Amino acid sequence: MAFVLNLIWFILGGLVLCITWFLGGLIMCITVIGIPFGVACFRIAGFIAFPFGKDIIDARLLGEKRITGTALMNFLWIVLAGIWLAISHAIAAVLCFITIIGIPLAVIHARMARVSFAPLGKRIVIKSEVREAIKYNTRAKIEKRKKA
């Protein structure tokens, strides 16, 4: 089912969105300060081409440490581009949701609204890995509380 949905998504706009995010990443990489944003754009471009069966989650759920300054960089992203990207994906989600057949596409746009708001510190994973990461982190938090 994910293959069919990915194919439909790719044809109906996924390719255009992928190219747009990739070009945005190239523009961001022109400056040294923009490189982290460019890398995030490339990551999102890879996700948005074929999003079904995958999800974007916080890297801390996978056990990765957050890079110092990620919050500040995400704030800069929100102010400069994130708010507008999130709004545009939210509007696209509403428009897709209005048509019954577009509901799966609306779900992807809603995810993209969330991740385009603050993309730094996110990782793309397969859906089953999301459940495992949440279980792992829940167990780790419980064990940490028991030790304290």
UniProtKB/TrEMBL annotation:
Residue ranges annotated as transmembrane are 7-27, 33-53, 65-84, 90-108
Keyword Hydrolase part of the UniProt annotation? no
* Chain ranges of the Inner membrane component domain: 4-54, 72-122
Name listed for the protein in its UniProt record: Inner membrane protein YccF
Give the superkingdom in one word: Bacteria
Q: What keyword terms does UniProt attach to this protein?
A: Membrane, Transmembrane, Transmembrane helix
Matching NCBIfam families:
PRK11770.1-2 (NF008740)
Q: Name one GO cellular component term.
A: plasma membrane
Organism field:
Limihaloglobus sulfuriphilus
Q: Which residues form a coiled coil?
A: none
Determine if Transport is one of this entry's keywords: no
